[in-house]
Amino acid sequence: MNNRLEMHDITRTFADGGFQRTILDRLNLKVAEGELVAVMGPSGSGKSTFLSIAGALLEPTRGDVLIDGKSILGQDKQALSELRLRKMGFIFQNANLIPYLKVEEQLMLVAKLAGSSKEVCAQRADELLQRMGLTHRKNAYPHKLSGGERQRVAIARALMNDPAVLFADEPTASLDASRGLEVVAMIAKQVKEQRKSAVMVTHDDRVLPHCDRVFYLDKGKLTEHPV
Amino acid sequence: MYLALREIRFAKARYTLIAAIMLLISFLVLFVTGLAQGLAYDNAASIQNMPATHFVLEQGSDHRFTRSQISGEKLEQTRSVVGESNAEPLGVQMTSIVLSGDIQKIDVALLAVNPKGWLAPDLTMGTTEKQETGGVVVDEKLAEHGVRLGSILVDQASGTRWTVTGFVKNESFSHAPAVFLSKEEWMGLHLPSSAQSGPGSAEGQAAYNAVAVKATEGEVSKLQSAVPNTEIIKKADAVSAIPGYKEEQGSLLMMIAFLFVISAFVLAVFFYVITIQKTSQFGILKAIGTRTSYLAGSVTLQVLLLSVFSLAVSIFLVKVLEMALPGTMPFQLGADMLALTCAAFIAMSLAGSLFSVWKVARIEALDAIGRAGV
Ligand SMILES: Nc1ncnc2c1ncn2[C@@H]1O[C@H](COP(=O)(O)OP(=O)(O)OP(=O)(O)O)[C@@H](O)[C@H]1O
Ligand SMILES: [Mg+2]
Q1: I need a surface site. Which of A24, A76, B1, B18 has the fewest CB within 10 A?
Q2: What is the pTM of this model?
Q3: For residue B215, which of B224, B207, B206, B203 has the smallest C-alpha distance?
Q4: Which residue of A has its CA nearest to B4?
C-alpha cells in the first residue's frame, strides 16, 4: 500500500507570553492511497495547526512531511506555492470560492495557474462538474449557488490539478446535516475512485461512517478511535 | 490576467466609477498641459520662431531684451567671431498703437529685424518692400482690431506713423502681437533726428537690444571674451525671461503636478481599499497555490487598464475640444507633449498601485485555514 501523505514526529510550538507552548507534540500520521481520515478534537487542540503543517502553509518546529514520498520541508515560498497548486487540494469551511468567477472558471483558474492548455482545462472541468452533478450550474456565480453546491464546487476545484492529497477543514460546518453528509460522501467517493489520500478535520459525528479511520487530537498527540 | 479581467467584468459599476474619476482627472491634465503649451507659445512665439541658438545681451540685463542695450560696435565684434551672416541685430520694445481714425489703443511688441535677414518671419500676405520707408509687417491677430493691408498705425509714444504692408502668423512677444519694422525705422525711433544716417555713425551708441546669433558651443565661449560687458544666453533662457513667462508657466505646471499627484492618490486609495476588502480572498488564492507575483500582476494590470482606458477617452475628448475651441484660444498639444504627458500619467498611476501590491505581498496564505469566514 502506498502512502501519499506521511507525517513524522511533527512538533509545533508557539511563543506565548514569553514561554513556548507546544501545540503538536511528536505527532505521526500515515494516510494511504484511497483513504479518507477524519481528525476530531476539542477547540484549540491544534487541528487547524496540524492541517496547515500538512498542507505546507505552516512550518513545523521539528519533524518531516512527505507527499508522495518526498519531503516538503526546507523549500522557499514559491516552491511551496507550486507544491500546493499541483500536489494538494484544499476544501475550506466556507467553500471560499472567488466571487467574480463563474463555476467553470473557478476550476479553469487553478488549471491555468498550473500551466495546463485550454483544451485540457476545459475537458477536465467538464468531467469534474459532471461527477459533482453541477453541469447545469457551470455558468453561475457563487452567490447564486446553495451552500451544498458551493462546497461541491470547492471539491471539484480541489481535484482539478489531480493532487496527491486532499485537505478539508470542517467542510460541513456551514451546511445542514443532510447536505453535510452528501458533501462528505462526495469527498469519500472521489478519494476512493481517484486514489488520493485525504485528511478531514470535523466536529460532526454523523459523517464519520464515510471515513476509513478516525483520529482524536489531544495534548498534541493523535490517537486512533474505532469508527 | 484571467483574474484581473473577470473581476472588472463582475464589478462593472465599481470599476466604471473609478474609470470616470480617472477620466476627468486625465482630461484635466491634458487640457491644462495644452493650455500651458499654448500660452507659452503665445507668449514667446516670435522668440521661439527665430532660428537663433543664442542671444548676446548687455551685462546686467537679467536676460531681458527690453533692459539690454547693444551698440553697433558690439554687433561688429560679434560678427567677427561667428561670421557676418550668423549674427543679426534685434530690437524689442513694448508700445501701444492706435489704428489711424480709431481711438482704441492696442498693445503690441515692436520687433526690429532686417527684412532680408534670417530673423524676418515668413509672410502670409503682402510684401516686405517699402519697409525702409515706413512699412511694417504685423501679426494676423491685429486683423481682429480692423487692421488691413494699407492701414495706418500710429505709435503712441513717438507719434510715428507706419503703413501695414504685410501679415505674418503666430508672431507675438509677451502675449502682445508683433509689429516688425526695419532697422531704419527703428533708428528713427531711437536716435535724435539730427543724427539720422546708417549704423556706422551710431558707433558706440546704444542701437539695438540684442544680437541673435547662430553659434556653436565653442564660438559661444569665444564670444564671451571677445565682446566685453555682455552676457550670452541660450534661446530657452531668453524665452523664460520674458516678463510673466516664468510665473505663468510655473503656476500651470504646479496645477499639472498636483493633478498627477491627485490621480496617483485616488488610484492608490481606491485599490488599497479594494485590496483590504479582498484580504481573505487573496489568502485563499495563495493557499491554493497562486503565486504572489501573479496576484501583484493582476492588481497592476487593473490599474494599467483603467489608466490607459481613461487616457484614451480623454485624448479623444481633448482633440474634439481642440477643434471646437476658437482660434484665439491659446491651446497647443503636440504629439511629443501628448506622449510625454500620457507616459507620466501612466507612471503615476502605477506608482499609486505600489501600495496595494505591497499589501498583497504581505497577505498570508495561512489566513485561509482556521479563520474561515473572516
Ligand atoms: N500563530 C499563532 N501564535 C500563537 N498561538 C497560536 C497561533 N496559531 C494558533 N495558536 C494557538 O494554537 C492552539 C491551536 O490552534 P488551532 O487553530 O490549531 O486550534 P483548532 O483545533 O483548529 O481549534 P478550533 O476547533 O476552534 O478550530 C490555540 O490555542 C491557538 O491559540
Ligand atoms: Mg480550527
Answers
A1: A76
A2: 0.81
A3: B224
A4: A100
